[in-house]
Design goal:
single chain, alpha/beta, Immunoglobulin-like, 2 domains
C-alpha cells in the first residue's frame, strides 16, 4: 500500500460512477481456465493449478474494491481484467482511509463489517456483520465467474492493526476461524496477511496478525497463505515466525526488483516467490529516490522479476488500487496494462517455470552491467539472465545498451536468436541466426526500441529434438 508516499483520494459513494509439469497444457492454446485453488509445484519453485498446470501469476491490485464499488461496477472491472489476461487480484476484505475507503471502514453504501463499534478504533472482531460478509461472498463469486483468483487480505495492517491491538490475540484468532470456516470452500482464494506491516518486528503486533492467519488455517487448509511485510524492502520469510504457515514468499521493494526477488528466491527452495508490490503505474514512490511508475520502470520490474525466479507478479496502478472516480473512464486500460500483456505472452508461450536465474554469470560472461540492489531503477544497468537446465532456452533482459558475451556451450544445440521489444511485443531476428552452440558470441542491443528506450530482451532457443 502506498499512502506514505502519495496522497490518497478517499472515495465515498463511488457507486455513482526445474521440473516438467505433470500435465502439459499450453495456456495460450484455446480457452484454458485454471483449476483453482493454486498450490505449490513439486519442485517448490512455482505455482500450479489443481491439474498441475504451471500458473504464472498476472495480477492487479484493486485493494479498495469491496469498500468502494457496487457489485455491478466490480463485475465490469473483473470483466475488463479477464479480457486483458489477468488471473489474480489483490483485494482487502476490510478497507479504510489507508487503502482509499472512508474512515469508518464501511462500504460506499454504508455496510459496516462489524455490528459493534463504529470505526477501526473500536470495532469488535467477534461481531461480524452478516450483510457485509455476504457482500464479500458475492464479490468473490463474481471474480470466480471471470476466472480470477483473489489474494484476500483478511485484515490489512496499514489501517486495521489498531483493531487487532484493541481486540487482542484471542479475538484475532477467533476472527481468523470465522473467515477460514466461511471461505474454506471458495476455490479462488489465496490468503495474504499484512500490507505495509512496518512493525512486524514488534512481537505483540506480529502476534495478533499471526493469530488471524493461524485461525484461518485451523479451518482452512485448502488455500495457501502469504504475507506482505514492510516497504521499502522485505520478503515474507524475513519474519521466520510466519514460515510454518507460508506457501508463497512475497517480495516487496521500491528498489531494483531483481535484488529482492533473488533474495526471496534464495531464502527457500520449498515455496515459490512472487513480486507482491513495487512501483505502481502513474504514481511516484520512494526507495533511494523518488521515481515515477513510467512504462519503462514497469518493464524493468516485470522482466527483472521473472528472470530472477518469480512465479509472477502483481502490477499496480494509482487509479485502480484505490478505485478512484476516474478509474472507469480513462485510467484502467493503460499502456502499462498493454505492456504487461506482452510480458505475459512472451513468458507464457515458453517453459518459464523451468528458468533458473544465472546468478554466477556462467551464461552471460561479460556485458551484464553493474549489480546495484539499492539504487535507482531508471539508471540501473544490470542484465538479468535465466536458463532452463536442458539448455533449450536462455532469456536475457538488458535495461540499457550493451554488448553481451554469451557462452554458447550452455545452449543445447543450434540456437535461434531474436531480440524482443518489450514495448510493443515484436521480434527482430539477430543477423546470422541460427548459431552453433560453440564458443562465446557477442550480442549488441539494437539501439532504441519502439518506445525510444534502450531496453531489450534477448531470447536464445535451441529446441531439443
Amino acid at each position: 500500500m502506498r499512502t506514505l508516499f502519495v496522497a490518497v483520494q478517499v472515495v465515498i459513494g463511488l457507486a455513482l460512477a526445474a521440473e516438467r509439469p505433470q500435465v502439459t497444457v499450453n495456456p495460450l492454446a484455446g480457452p484454458y481456465v485454471p483449476a483453482y485453488p493454486v498450490k505449490v509445484s513439486a519442485s517448490g519453485r512455482y505455482l500450479v493449478d489443481q491439474n498441475n498446470v504451471p500458473f504464472m501469476m498476472v495480477g492487479d491490485a484493486p485493494q479498495a474494491l469491496i469498500g468502494n464499488l457496487s457489485e455491478s461496477l466490480a463485475d465490469a472491472y473483473f470483466a475488463d481484467r479477464e479480457a486483458h489476461g489477468f488471473n489474480t487480484l489483490w483485494i482487502n476484505l476490510l478497507c479504510t482511509t489507508y487503502t482509499g475507503c472512508n474512515k469508518a471502514g464501511t462500504t460506499y453504501d454504508g455496510l459496516s463489517p462489524f455490528t459493534r463499534g463504529n470505526s477501526p478504533r473500536n470495532y469488535d472482531l467477534s461481531k461480524p456483520n452478516e450483510t457485509y460478509f455476504k457482500r464479500v461472498d458475492d464479490m468473490l463469486h463474481l471474480a470466480a465467474n471471470h476466472h480470477l483468483q483473489v489474494f484476500l487480505d483478511p485484515i490489512e495492517t496499514g489501517g486495521w492493526l489498531i483493531t487487532l491491538q484493541s481486540n487482542g490475540a484471542t479475538k484475532a484468532y477467533q476472527f481468523g476461524q470465522y473467515l477460514g470456516n466461511r471461505y474454506k470452500n471458495f476455490q479462488n482464494i489465496v490468503w495474504m496477511s499484512g500490507n505495509d506491516f512496518q512493525t512486524w518486528k514488534t512481537t505483540s503486533d506480529d502476534a495478533v496478525v499471526l493469530a488471524v492467519a493461524q485461525g484461518i488455517r485451523s479451518f482452512d487448509s485448502n488455500h495457501i497463505q502469504t504475507t506482505e511485510l514492510n516497504y521499502e524492502l522485505s520478503s515474507s520469510l524475513d519474519d521466520n515466525r510466519w514460515a510454518p504457515l507460508l506457501g508463497l514468499n512475497s517480495a516487496y521493494t521500491y528498489y531494483p526488483t531483481y535484488d529482492e526477488v533473488l533474495h526471496a528466491y534464495n531464502q527457500a527452495s520449498s515455496i515459490p516467490t512472487f513480486l507482491v508490490e513495487a512501483h505502481y503505474e502513474s504514481e511516484t514512490v520512494g526507495g533511494c529516490c523518488e521515481e515515477s511508475g513510467t512504462p519503462k520502470i514497469l518493464r524493468l520490474q516485470e522482466y527483472w522479476s521473472m528472470l530472477s525466479g518469480a512465479t509472477g507478479q502483481l502490477y499496480g496502478n494509482h487509479y485502480t488500487w484505490t478505485i478512484t472516480n476516474s478509474w472507469l473512464y480513462a485510467n484502467i486500460d493503460t499502456l502499462g496494462v498493454t505492456q504487461l500483456g506482452y510480458w505475459k505472452a512472451f513468458f507464457a508461450s515458453r517453459p518459464w517455470y523451468n528458468l533458473i536465474p544465472d546468478q554466477t554469470h556462467i551464461v552471460v560472461t561479460a556485458g551484464y552491467g553493474n549489480y546495484n540492489g539499492t539504487g535507482a531503477l531508471g539508471t540501473n544497468t544490470y542484465v538479468t539472465t535465466a536458463r532452463t537446465p536442458d539448455g533449450a532456452l536462455v532469456v536475457l533482459y538488458a535495461p540499457v545498451s550493451t554488448t553481451l558475451q554469451v557462452d554458447m556451450t550452455k545452449l543445447a544445440g543450434t540456437t535461434t536468436a531474436n531480440w524482443f521489444d518489450p514495448a510493443n511485443g515484436t521480434y527482430t531476428p539477430v543477423a546470422g541466426s541460427p548459431f552453433a552452440n560453440t564458443g562465446t558470441r557477442s550480442f549488441t542491443t539494437p539501439g532504441n526500441n519502439s518506445a525510444g528506450d534502450t531496453d531489450w530482451v534477448l531470447v536464445l532457443e535451441s529446441p531439443i529434438i
